[in-house]
Amino acid sequence: MRRFSTAFALVSVLIASFSLFAEESDRWFRGNTHTHTLWSDGDDLPESVADWYKRHGYHFLVLSDHNILSRGERWKELRADEALPVLKKAEQRWGKGHVKTRVADGKKQVRLMPLSEVRELLEEPGKFIMIEGVELSSNPSGFAVHSNPLNVSEHLEVHRKTNRSVVEDLTDHERVVHAHEEKTGNPVFWQVNHPNFKFSVTGEMLAGIEGLDGVEIMNSSSKCFNLGDGRRPSLERIWDIANTLRLKRDALPPIYGTATDDTHDYHIGDYVMNSPGTSWVMVNAPELTPNAIAKAMQQGAFYSTTGVILKKLEFDSTRRTLTVVVDEKKGLNYRIEFIGTHKNASLKHEDVEAIVDEKGLPHPVTANYVDERIGMSLKIIDGAKAVYRMTGDELYVRAVVHCDAPPYFKYDAYSDLVQKAWTQPVGWDGN
Ligand SMILES: [Zn+2]
Ligand SMILES: [Zn+2]
Predict the structure, then answer these.
(1) 380, 364 in Cβ contact below 8 A?
(2) Domain containing 315: what range?
(3) What is the 320 CA–ligand 2 centroid distance (Å)?
(4) How far is the C-alpha of 209 from the C-alpha of 204, rounded, in Å?
(5) Close Cβ partners of 237 (under 8 Å, ≥ 6 residues apart)
(6) Which ligand is closest to the CA of 139, given by its number?
(7) How far apart are the CA of 33 and the centre of ligand 2, in A?
(8) Range with the lowest mean pLDDT among 7-11, 58-62, 379-383?
């Protein structure tokens, strides 16, 4: 996590790292940073979950169960609907007797593997690793403040009293994560999850968390309202507003956008809502280790995707050019869009009245920023390759790659999950 005091000292490192995208020594690693298992409310064993990701070409996986690390001895009673598929799948994959069972209080329980055993079973140096994580989850006053620190090594306890505000809880998560990072000296990439789940977190709130590294701009599980709901903005819009406020008003570095599965359901088929495989990150790092991945993500050396893969992503800090080349799939057409905020964009905004839900709870809404040059479309190229040369007027630039592959599924009443890729904001230090 990047702290305020050191934020701008890191800028030059970040920009330099983008030039490294072209270095052959660095590799691209595919990973999911938000995954549930039976350790909390996911419906499969941790080793079966990790095995799915490994078999599907992922290089790393973060198991992020709610407020719990996969450590120690844990037995769990399976729900009637999960027991059969969980045990059948495990037996087919790992053989009879792999899953330990016992009867406690007349109920059958299964033993959950701790992360150390999952690592032993599945990790292969340079090919596949597990990164320890957790979903810090607090639910103040009917909202949901969930955040994932990636690359932790001990239990982190956040306040879980419900009489607190969303901002108080976000600040509490930040304090806990940062204290852990200071204590261990290991980089921890910290993202706020699904801001539009229960419409809990606004763009202004994200802007205000100084030490935040990332935010989910795509979460392919249910009720996350990635594209807003018609009355409230999309996560991408919220992200641009937060980054504009941070860079222009607060002298803070931008936050990076992640795409995650937030997987819960493993027995309903692949590539459907809540199942694995539709949203992930591609990280450019010198090696496949938890520290290298977390550090690269803190530096913004990654992009997020729901299926579009890039062959080249390079920000040349001397020429001020952002180059995007898609690894094309036959039969698909691509459109590359560059998005950014103009340096002179006004931060003038109209406050939007809170939206009261069916329980009478008012949900604050990200303000309406009237200057169209905030998060504006700067250039659109039809094709699989595009270069954007910065004019000097941009606060930052990022790219989105659209394609015409059929959507995976409709994830809420407002939108389909389509295949896209989002690169991170670059060119924001003014050099
Ligand atoms: Zn969550
Ligand atoms: Zn989750």
Answers:
(1) no
(2) 7-34+135-422
(3) 37
(4) 9
(5) 203, 228, 366, 375
(6) 1
(7) 10
(8) 7-11
